[in-house]
Amino acid sequence: MQPDAPNAAAGPWWAICLCPDWCGACRDYRSSFDALARAHPGVRFEWVDIEDEADIAGDLEFETFPTLLIGHRRRALFLGPLLPRAPVLERLLGSLQAAHQGDDQGGHGPTQAGAPAQELFDRVRAARRG
Q1: If we measure between CA atoms, which residue out of 28, 27, 2 comes closest to residue 16?
Q2: How many alpha carbons fall within 13 Å on the CB side of residue 23?
Q3: Are 5 and 40 in contact (CB under 8 A)?
Q4: What distance in Å separates the CA atoms of residue 19 and residue 2, rounded to the nearest whole number?
Q5: Tens of pLDDT along 9-31?
Q6: What angle do CA 65, 6, 98 make, to 5 degrees?
């Protein structure tokens, strides 16, 4: 859990890593994830330990780690496993930001992640007061 992320008061974009503490790949990825948080002040990066914060994870089953949830404002846009490499997350964020460029002016981008992702995003935002 990282409620005091480097940019917890960032803009409307969220990048949320969902991992259990026992996952070695996730532990190794954590420093890259934190470095991305510092490099992207317009994105709110959050780390959720799906076992310590099981109430946030809810009934979702996670089979591959790390699993990333990307949201913009109040809408979940992506939920899925990602290679634990910073450039992969940077590319995903960049493509989603480009696709949702008009959202700040009331537009609606072309992608949405579905109901389970949206419910998860709502729980993360509530827990992190976002």
Answers
A1: 2
A2: 19
A3: no
A4: 12
A5: 568 999 999 999 999 999 999 99
A6: 70
